[in-house]
Amino acid sequence: MARNSRYDYLIVGNSAAGIAAAESIRELDGVGSLAIVSDEPYHAYSRPLISHYLAGDKSAKSLNYRENDFYGKLTIEPMLGTKAVKISDGALDLESGKRLFFKKLLLATGGKPFIPPLKGLSLKGVYSFTKLADARAISEDLKFCRKAVVLGGGLIGIKAAEALRERGIDVTVVELAGRVLSLVLDAKGSAMVEKSLRDRRVKMITGKTIQEIKGETRVESVILTDGTSLECDLLLVAIGVVPNTDLAKTAGLKTRSGIVVNGRMESSANSIYAAGDAVELMDFVLGRRRPIPVLPLAYLGGRVAGANMAGARWKIPHVTSLNSAVFFGLPVASAGIVSTDGSPELNEVSVKREPGCYKKLVLNGDRLVGFVLVGDIDRGGIFLDLMRKSVEMKGWKKLICNELTLISLPASAAKEKIAEMCVP
Amino acid sequence: MKRIYAKRDYCIGCRLCEVHCVAAHSHSKDIVKAYKFERKNQPRFRIEESGAVSFAVQCRHCDEPFCVYSCISGAMSVDGNGAVVNDPERCVGCWTCILACPYGAISRDEAGGKIVSKCDLCAERAMPACVENCPNEALVYADVTVGKADG
Question: Is A66 on the interface with B (CB under 8 A)?
């Protein structure tokens, strides 16, 4: 329970953005009182790793995002298993009734699973898949399961399907779009992942979604939008996450689909900052603000927010979507715009080598605006950096056909980097 | 902080630096044994060559390491000496850091535990093995910020 009720710094959220802010606050201010409030009772853990827990690869403790002595070492008061319900007049109201006054507040409340309004959601065997508690509950339930349906073929859904398959469960993925990972990869990339899944006997049904969940006490089947029925005793709803803006709204903060923040991660209210999956970031490639719920950007935003809470004037650097994952041994990485979608000012260059290797760059004139890498993801960061720096150059195709090296980049693109690495 | 820098004019692309990196990170610390009898670990950096120009590309151990910020498991961190290091027990091989590194300095150790491989500035040695063993003194281990206005 809280020892004090007045804090210099209060952080709501114990995941990447919250931890990042705590770390940057402590880099600049070793003295100010700092507490992290989280409704989950666990030490900070990595949400992207819950699929490893479900697969049986990792224990709950090994999901920890930081060492066991993290809070003590940084003089942070962790208030875990504590729900914040309201913000008013410079104070955070907890569910217990206690009020915590703050000088600076960070909302790092993350995302919550998107659950469609379906009949039968309250049946046994129906779960979402975003937090450790979900993975634990599903894991406990697996002894009653033989056939699972995963609703959603995005990153969360495919990772969940992979985990269940590794536990020997029969899995069918139901995805509304025409292909899996439609937001992360282009058509060719999706096809390669789908082959990988099929090779491991994961079934996929695309272009449809679920309209009803049927069963007595436990889920027994799902009815798809075309009327077909799929037998199952486990249903994972893994459509996606939406920003968790509940707390922000109690303070009257400006929100759209996520909490609106400026480049310094300041919300519309004085002394209140926001970062992570709960906010909208300026996607510099798309030129508009939107939620980009990926861990690296949650950490970056949190780091900037924390520093500014402690008196700095940092701005978040150029960001756009980025993803990297391995599905049944097939690595995929992508960032920015992954398909031209018929857009007239975009064009692409691509190469497909031996089965399992595909690289594609999306260009706007001479600038890189996105890329997809499957199989050979090596040094992909060089592409991301060229994209973030809006480097203009010719000869992009060579970079994917030959080995990607700094020395092969035109002088204008690599001069600075190479100078940094060399001495006369 | 000291980092490894290359002297382009002196590098002849012999790659002995890569060989010594493998040996220094091996069990036996002996070149012959490392290559002949141990599971071959890979060099933790690369030599880049184009025509007559070649130089080593090691991790820059950045002041603002995007790889550390991007790491989903917390495996990537900054050690007591300021070096960016990867914890092989916690790395899950998601390759997000590879996507984050602007120098392409991190590579996949597929032969090993499917984790990442990167320069660790040879924490156990007085001087990184590559620098110590370059036959042409094309690598230096130095703090280039000394003498500058603000480090």
Answer: yes
For B48, the closest of A52, A406, A420 (CB atoms) is: A406
Compute the distance between CA of residue B28 and CA of residue B38 in angstroms, rounded to an integer. Answer: 8
Q: Which structure tokens are listed for A147?
A: 């056939």
pLDDT band of B113, cuts 50, 70, 90: low
Could you give the ipTM of this predicted complex? 0.95
Q: Which residue has the tokens 């597929």?
A: B110
Tell me which residue of B87, B96, B91 sits closest to B115, measured CA to CA: B91
B contacts of A379 (beta carbons < 8 Å): 98, 101, 104, 107
- pLDDT of A69 > 90? The answer is yes
Please answer yes or no on whether B92 and A333 come within 8 Å at the CB atom: no
CB within 8 Å: B93 and A326: yes
Residue B62: closest CA among B42, B46, B73, B76:
B76
Question: Environment class of residue B14 by beta-carbon count within 10 Å: exposed (0-12), middle (13-18) or buried (19+)?
Answer: middle
Query: pTM here?
Result: 0.96
Determine contact: A326 vs chain B, CB below 8 A: yes
Question: Which of B60, B74, B99 shows the shortest C-beta gap to A333?
Answer: B99
pLDDT band at B151 (very low <50, low <70, confident <90, very high): very low
How wide is the angle at C-alpha A245 spanned by C-alphas A244 and A249, nearest 5°?
160
What would the pLDDT profile of B3-47 be if each residue is shown by its tens digit? Answer: 999 998 999 999 999 999 999 999 899 988 888 888 778 999 999
Residues A410, A393 contacting (CB under 8 angstroms): yes
Question: Degrees (nearest 5) of the Cα angle A288, A318, B107?
Answer: 125
- Please tell me the predicted confidence (pLDDT) of residue A413: 83
Residue A1 has pLDDT above 80, yes or no: no
Residues of B in contact with A73 (CB under 8 A): none
